Amino acid sequence: MTSNEVAGDGYDDVRLLADLNSLYENDDPVPEEVLEAARGAFAWSDFDAQLARLLDEESLSGRAVRATGDQHLLTFEAEQLTFVVEATELADGRKLVGQVVPAGPRELGLESAGGGSASTEVDELGRFSLPQLPAGPARLRCELPDGTRVVTEWGAI
């Protein structure tokens, strides 16, 4: 077998796979929700990070999780840290203003399920602001001074 025959076989395989991919893209495309979930699962690289979970209405002692109008309040709690976040819906995305309690992290990152990210500084009182973010599922992450990483659940932050 010559190198041309091997290259030819490889080319035929690539062409066959491309044709199959084209067939499925047109006749039976993968739903966007499935693609977003897959991207989110693949992006989870910090298995050792503490997961901050969204508190439900009962654990907020009767305070509503969502306010009326274009804003909602979310509270995520981990073993050593709490994130209190107010999300304001904008025409083309959202804005976040929040506080990390107790203060400690100096930087906060946001990851979008669509692959985007943003980061901001956290002041000495734990306050932060992310002014222009795309809509869709996202999660917050930070690192405490002792090196502990904390990540919120994915959600409509």
Summary of the model, kept short:
The chain is α+β, with helices and mostly antiparallel strands.
What does it look like?
- With 157 residues, the chain is an alpha+beta fold.
- It has two helices and nine strands.
- Strands 6-5-8-9-1-2-3-4-7 form a nine-stranded mixed sheet, with no helix packed on it.
Keyword list:
single chain; 157 residues; alpha+beta; 2 helices; 24% helix; elongated
How would you characterize the largest beta sheet?
A: 9 strands, mixed
Helical run tally: 2
Structural class: alpha+beta
Helices and strands, in N-to-C order? HHEEEEEEEEE
* Total DSSP E strands: 9
What is the topology, as strand order, of the major beta sheet? 6-5-8-9-1-2-3-4-7
* Separation of the first and last Cα atoms: 58 Å
Low-pLDDT ranges:
1-7, 57-69
Tertiary shape: elongated
Provide the β-strand percentage band: 35-45%
Mean pLDDT value? 79
* Spatial extent as radius of gyration: 22 Å
The level of helicity is 10-25%
